[in-house]
Amino acid sequence: MKALFCDWLISCAVAVTPVTPLPDLYYGTVLYSYYQDDTSQALLDTLIAERRGQLGEDPVRYQLAKGSFAFAEGMYTLAEETFEGVADSEMTPLDRMRLSFHLAREHFRRGDWSKTESLLADIQLGEGWLGRERYHPEVEFMRAEMSSRAGQWTAARAAIDHIAPTTPFYAYGLFNLGVAQRAAGEMAAAERSFADLANLDAYSTEVFDLKQRALLALAFIRRAQSETVSAEEILGALPSGTRYRDLAMSSYGGLAMETGDYKLAARVWLTLSEGDYWTQSSAAARLALPMSLEQMASRELALTQYRVAEARYEARLGKLATMESQVDQPGWMGGLLEVFAAPPAAADGAESARRERLMNRWRETFGHTDWLEWLATEDIHELLLQWRELKDIDAWLGDLPAELATFDELANEQKRRSAAARELITAEGLRERRAVIASQLDALLTSIDALRTATPTRTIDWMSKLADREQAARLADLAAKRALIENHMQGAELQRYLARIDRLEGLVFWALVESRLDKLRALDKSQRAAQAALAEIDDSLARIAVAEREYVAGVETDFLAFQARADDIARMVADALHDRESRLAEHVRRGIRREIAQLERHLLMTRMAIARTTDQLALAAEEGE
Amino acid sequence: MRRPRSCSPWARFLWERACPRFGAIGLLLLAACSTAPLEIEGPRVAETVAELPEVPMPEVRMPPPTRADVMTAYRRIYGTVPDGDDNHAIGKRLADLEMEVGTERDITGATDPYRAAIDLYEELLEDGDGEHRDEILYQLARAHDVIGDGATAQRYLDRLILEHPDSAYAVEAHFRRAEMAFSAERYRAAADDYAYVVDHGLESVYWRNANYMLGWCRFKEGDLDRSLESFFVVAGGIFDEGEAPDRGTV
């Protein structure tokens, strides 16, 4: 997929004229994610770009890219819908071939051979600039596989020869062809395929590993053809440091048995059977050791070793039975899968040591590392990746309580402050104080208004509004005296005392007129002070109200909703984890059962050998008598 | 075999394809990608094998296994071996050992001493494809004959003669059946089986006895001349070898 997608990129770089910067930048971002092997991010970016209408100048290519990313992410429905959404008339012949390639690749992965074949037939890349036919390695690989399945070895080989020998597809193609030919009994053809792969230069560990496998397969074929010298040469030349060492040595031991070199065979079997490590080769070696001893030593020694082998097989089978019963326990399987958990971003020495201990523990539990291979096939690998992502989410959710506790503390603090604020309102009598000040302010405003607006007149009404306490008392006293004079005096005496009262009121009046400006300034000052006090109280009340309404109530509600949502997600993650662990457990169980079946065969053969040897010893004793 | 996912060969492929378009850039990228092929590091398997330690071979002394030990060892596996031939052979050996046990029990006067052997032989007989069916039929006839069940013994002899005419046990089966017929005074039937043994030549240990008994059958049937022929053959053999006549033993 990457090749074709890159091809699109190359085509873009060559053919597409400069477009507006923003879509191009975004397209680049998508590609960046893709080149980081982060197809999920690439798909997400594509969907966002689509929503924003930033598909660039070539929406068809964009849709094809989106479909490809969806395919890579296993979202086949989305991929198919996307591809179907691209009008046929919009696509160039090359686009159609790309689409066929993607679909063929997916059908190949699903094992739908007829659809794969029909789609592959649509892909003809034609000639390159130099007139040479152009081939795509993965297309040719799939063609070779299709031909192999049909037993068309020549066509399969021709397709493989279209692949550059430096690509892993060439090595995989040859190996798979050899395996198919061997299974079909075409030993000479299989031998040629394996030999070609064995002679190939390996530029990657992947191909290097395949070469070792091809050499092993070649040795097995030569051995089956009784070409023991050739088989021994091939096996002997294999490296001791690879994972095929035991298998190669086991074959070496088998060859030694066939040629009658039981001493050499016994040395091989002894080495392979030492320790408590249980590979296919070491399991077989435990039985093969007494078989070779039977040929070169006493029957008694052979019988003793057969019994040792029997005891070891029985113990191992007991252990496997226990393990099989434990596979369904979530804790057990989860513990095993911890080996595959993503390492922390900043793994230190202690973390590395912990991981090594974990690996060693499971190696000891299983007695081998074959389980790593059980969980290494492509389909299971995807399951493992899903498990790992779910595990990360689970860990994140696991850390949430601490964060939620922080939120909880925050909410409690807000509650505490809210309560304190409410208490402040009560304790300091803010509302009562505000009422008093407001009343005072109203009085002040009335007085100021009167002073400013009313024209000075020598009336009690005007004067009483401006008079201070002393002046007001004097004015009241004069008013009382005026009433007394008017009631009890007459004539000139009346006039003389009224004139005197007028003069005294006049003194107050003029004093009031003179002090009017000073009083206005004083009243203004008091009014400003009262307004400031009132504003301060209003501000306090407003802050308390906001604290109550926005912070306390808001945080509390969000926190609860978030916690409920987190609980839902945690449950879903736990279910998904359980599902993945169950499916992975099934693969582990199958592996364990395969080993059990193999060991049961070995145990039975050992018991048959014990019976035979015991019988022979008994007969020999009878003959001796 | 899974498909490869390695990035570098992909990159190389793309660069190879890109070269015609990008010229020098493609070549540079290709050059950057090229490395020497991987070589084997460390010792080879042959070298490792050459360094393997010797196998210690201490002398092991153990009491010789008894028949019971052997039977226990066979019983553990009989019926569990997936290969039918192997399983049948194990059962056959076990039945033979049971027959030996039966003989010992017969001597001690035990009741139905061959029951275990008979049951096992009959079980083996039900396996239509099993080997040594003639021998099993012979052993069953023998076991039943020893315990006095002549009718059953004869049925097995009949089957042996009918189903395995070329068996190594065929001559003896005819002889045993002739003996049973003679005891039952069915002289013509006995004469036919004795004649079969005689016709199969001197190599048979039963040849002389068969001749002798064939003479008696003819005598009983009143065919005196032909009975004399048989007796003369026997007498001639005895005089040649100076041996006493032997009727054979079961």
Describe it:
The complex is a heterodimer of chains A (625) and B (250). Chain A is mainly α and 625 residues long. Among the domains of chain A are: 1-111, Serine Threonine Protein Phosphatase 5, Tetratricopeptide repeat (Alpha Horseshoe); 409-624, no CATH class. Chain A has helices at residues 2-15, 21-35, 39-52, 59-72, 76-85, 93-110, 113-120, 137-149, 153-161, 168-183, 187-198, 205-224, 228-237, 245-258, 262-273, 280-296, 299-326, 330-337, 349-366, 370-374, 378-427, 430-453, 460-466, 469-488, 491-624. Chain A is elongated and about 180 Å long. Chain B has helices at residues 7-22, 24-33, 45-50, 67-77, 84-107, 115-126, 133-146, 150-163, 170-183, 187-199, 207-220, 224-241. Chain B has 250 residues and is mainly alpha-helical. The radius of gyration of chain B is 36 Å and the shape is elongated. Among the domains of chain B are: 65-168, Alpha Horseshoe (Serine Threonine Protein Phosphatase 5, Tetratricopeptide repeat); 190-250, no CATH class. In chain B, helix 1 runs antiparallel to helix 2 and helix 9 (170-183) packs antiparallel against helix 10 (187-199). Chain B is built from 12 helices and no strands. Chains A and B meet through helix 1, helix 8, helix 10, helix 12 and helix 13 of A and helix 1, helix 3, helix 4 and helix 5 of B.
